[in-house]
Design goal:
- This protein has 14 helices and 16 strands.
- It is of the alpha/beta class and about 350 residues long.
- The strands form three sheets. Strands 7, 8, 9, 10, 11, 12, 13, 14, 15 and 16 form a ten-stranded mixed β-sheet that branches.
- Helix 6 links the parallel strand 7 and strand 8.
């Protein structure tokens, strides 16, 4: 009973995210610095007036700052453990829970973090977890979405994941949106099988997937590449590129070298670690490689219908349907944006 009635708080974490000292917070909330210190350390239970004052100056709910006994709905918890400590993290609210995401490399390079765990210096200030959209996908052009959403006052965090891994994160409630391109089975059928009904698919583009190969090979057809003995770089199971590769190799043993995303495949070929691999035309051409098209796929973003009214998801749908975004996509090698913005239910 005592454990359940123990008051926990996020005052220190919220203060550091804003770059404030204890004295700064005390002045803004009309409290003493020693009082703020005691509240943060759990030595003092704030009055209702003090709790309301703290929530007002930090522009959040009282329940985002204070919870009874263990983790409450506003208490950040790790989406998954960081590789080591200390580690930078992002904060985002998904489905009413505030998650702490270990910072990782993505298609947008280094992004500002929200904090360093444990007890590290604060990161960027003023970022609202409720205005942060978390997307798991393998789209190398996801940075275009981040730029567009930023103009709509929504921060985008992109977690680089294969189609299968992205859907699993969506199923577990740790991302708002999952990107997928699984043309062999069909995106609709995969979502229906793995997630069930009550989801929606937002088309971003139809893109070209094929073979990125070293220019020195001089290959002129996919058949010619498959007949020759080359060093391949592969992708993990559950990815659209792996699906395509397995169909091309027709039962042959998959490559031993595995890349984590489309750019990783192209980089392995560019650096001479492999001769050929399956990726998007965009990634292959960016790396200065030859490219042989295998197929065109529909790339969709999946989200739960219950999230359709979330301001972040609505902003994403509005962005993908905008003329400016579609024009940017259409200029990318291998991207066909003519169907961008089409929304269809998965029931």
């Amino acid at each position: 009973m005592a454990e359940r009635n123990r008051l926990e708080n996020q005052v220190r974490e919220m203060r550091l995210r804003r770059g404030w000292s204890q004295e700064d917070l005390a002045d803004r909330a009309g409290l003493s610095r020693s009082g703020v210190s005691a509240i943060e350390a759990g030595r003092l239970v704030p009055s209702a007036a003090a709790a309301l004052a703290l929530a007002e100056v930090m522009e959040c709910r009282v329940e985002d700052l204070f919870q009874l006994g263990g983790r409450g709905p506003g208490t950040p918890e790790w989406a998954w453990p960081p590789a080591r400590l200390p580690w930078r993290y992002w904060l985002a609210e998904v489905g009413g829970r505030v998650w702490r995401y270990p910072v990782e490399a993505g298609p947008m390079g280094v992004q500002a973090h929200d904090g360093v765990f444990p007890d590290g210096p604060p990161g960027q200030t003023g970022t609202d977890p409720r205005r942060t959209l978390v997307m798991a996908c393998c789209d190398p052009a996801a940075g275009l979405s981040a730029d567009g959403l930023a103009r709509l006052d929504v921060r985008l965090i992109v977690l680089p994941r294969s189609s299968g891994a992205a859907l699993e994160l969506l199923r577990s409630g740790k991302v708002h949106v999952a990107g997928l391109h699984l043309s062999s089975l069909g995106n609709d059928a995969v979502v229906r099988e793995r997630l069930g009904p009550n989801h929606a698919l937002l088309t971003v583009a139809r893109w070209e997937e094929g073979l990125a190969l070293a220019p020195s090979l001089g290959a002129r057809s996919v058949r010619e590449v498959l007949r020759s003995q080359h060093r391949w770089v592969g992708r993990e199971e559950g990815s659209g590129a792996r699906q395509c590769l397995d169909e091309l190799l027709q039962g042959r043993k998959p490559p031993r070298r595995i890349a984590r995303d489309h750019r990783g495949v192209a980089e392995a070929v560019r650096c001479g670690w492999a001769d050929v691999g399956v990726c998007l035309r965009l990634s292959g051409e960016e790396a200065g490689l030859d490219f042989l098209s295998v197929r065109q796929e529909r790339y969709d973003l999946c989200f739960a219908k219950s999230a359709a009214d979330d301001v972040r998801v609505k902003a994403l749908v509005s962005l993908v349907r905008s003329t400016s975004y579609r024009d940017l996509l259409a200029a990318l090698p291998g991207y066909d944006a003519s169907a961008a913005g089409e929304l269809r239910p998965v029931d």
